[in-house]
């Protein structure tokens, strides 16, 4: 089976690994981002290529945060984390003259692809609960991009009319209530002193601080409704929840599974289909490798 190099561009580091979706990763490592610029990112990719030069690879998959216009794979819109990257494709990071195929996609899409593949699902939704809300939709075994690459923005579906401000410029989005940063901003606006705490401390404290418990519970309740809406719309085999928020126990998968069916049309009511993501911080790298396999038809 052919092996590929998967690269996942994160907020603070690049993760990478070589392998295939059947046997997993033969190696996995991270390189911290010291400077956010195109040349610094190109330098990190050059380092990665040196690290894997002894491994026989058949192509590279790259996962990037942000919205990628498809099929050219250019980052579009506002990207406060990587402003220098807007208008460019992650392919620009690969040295000129590199002659293997390079495939790119959004990081949440690749997480959904890797997890759907591991759960043996051809129809699945992946949701990551972290500083934002990431979403990827897999239909017929492939990432669904929509007409322009803008599909799967579940985090910016408006859940509350005229609600909290969101980073996207709208109000009342799911992300403004259910993401970790959304919860922090809501706490800060209420003058509650917990917004600066690390996530594990924040989660531990909710058991004894009623106002904190309420804000987190509201986030979970809106997430449950959003999950139900996604199930109603797409009828997936599974909804796979991951990201730091789920890994650390911000939300309870059992409660999500118990309550989501209450918001489904009665004819659709079904058994628990929400599961926890299994690959943790390797999902993006494995998804990038799975993307290479799907695109090159080597499976
Ligand atoms: Zn939004």
Write the layout of secondary structure elements.
Layout: E1 4-9, E2 13-20, E3 24-32, H1 38-51, E4 60-64, E5 67-69, E6 74-76, E7 102-106, H2 107-118, E8 124-129, E9 133-139, E10 142-143, H3 174-178, H4 180-189, H5 199-205, H6 210-234, E11 238-242, H7 244-247, H8 253-259, E12 274-276, H9 283-296
Parallel strand pairs: 1-4, 4-7, 8-11, 11-12
Antiparallel strand pairs: 1-2, 2-3, 5-6, 8-9, 9-10
Helix pairs in contact: 2-9
The protein binds zinc ion.
Question: Would you write up a description of this structure?
Answer:
It contains nine helices and twelve strands. The mean pLDDT is 93. It is an alpha/beta fold. It is globular and about 55 Å long. It folds into two domains: 4-112 and 281-296, 2-Layer Sandwich (Nucleotidyltransferase, domain 5); 120-278, Nucleotidyltransferase, domain 5 (2-Layer Sandwich). It has helices spanning 38-51, 107-118, 174-178, 180-189, 199-205, 210-234, 244-247, 253-259, 283-296, and strands spanning 4-9, 13-20, 24-32, 60-64, 67-69, 74-76, 102-106, 124-129, 133-139, 142-143, 238-242, 274-276. Strand 5 (67-69) and strand 6 (74-76) form a beta hairpin. A five-stranded mixed β-sheet has the order 3-2-1-4-7. A five-stranded mixed β-sheet has the order 10-9-8-11-12, sandwiched between helices. Strands 5-6 form a two-stranded antiparallel sheet. The structure holds zinc ion. Zinc ion binds at residues 156, 166, 168, 170, 173, 175. Zinc ion (ZN) is lined by residues 156, 166, 168, 170, 173, 175.
């Amino acid at each position: 089976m052919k092996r590929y190099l998967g690269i996942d561009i994160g907020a603070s580091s690049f993760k990478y690994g070589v392998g295939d979706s059947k046997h997993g990763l033969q190696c996995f490592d991270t390189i911290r981002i010291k400077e956010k610029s195109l040349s610094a990112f190109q330098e990190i990719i050059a380092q990665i290529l040196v690290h894997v030069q002894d491994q026989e690879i058949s192509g590279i998959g790259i996962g990037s945060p942000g919205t990628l216009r498809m099929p050219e794979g250019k980052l579009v819109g506002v990207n406060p984390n990587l402003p220098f990257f807007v208008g460019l494709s992650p392919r620009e990071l690969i040295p000129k003259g590199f002659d293997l195929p390079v495939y790119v996609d959004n990081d949440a899409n690749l997480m959904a692809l890797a997890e759907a593949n591991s759960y043996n699902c051809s129809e699945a939704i992946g949701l990551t609960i972290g500083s934002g809300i990431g979403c990827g939709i897999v239909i017929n075994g492939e990432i669904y991009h929509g007409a322009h690459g803008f599909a799967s923005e579940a985090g910016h579906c408006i859940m509350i009319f005229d609600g909290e401000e969101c980073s996207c410029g709208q109000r009342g989005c799911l992300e403004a209530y259910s993401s970790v940063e959304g919860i922090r901003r809501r706490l800060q606006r209420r003058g509650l002193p917990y917004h600066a705490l690390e996530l594990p401390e924040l989660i531990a404290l909710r058991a004894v601080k009623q106002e904190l418990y309420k804000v987190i519970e509201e986030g979970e309740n809106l997430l449950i409704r959003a999950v139900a809406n996604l199930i109603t719309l797409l009828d997936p085999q599974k909804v796979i929840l991951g990201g730091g928020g789920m890994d650390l126990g911000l939300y309870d998968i059992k409660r999500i599974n118990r309550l989501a069916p209450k918001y489904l049309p009665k004819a659709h009511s079904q058994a628990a289909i929400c599961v926890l993501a299994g690959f943790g911080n390797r999902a993006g790298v494995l998804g990038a490798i799975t993307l290479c396999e799907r695109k090159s038809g080597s499976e």
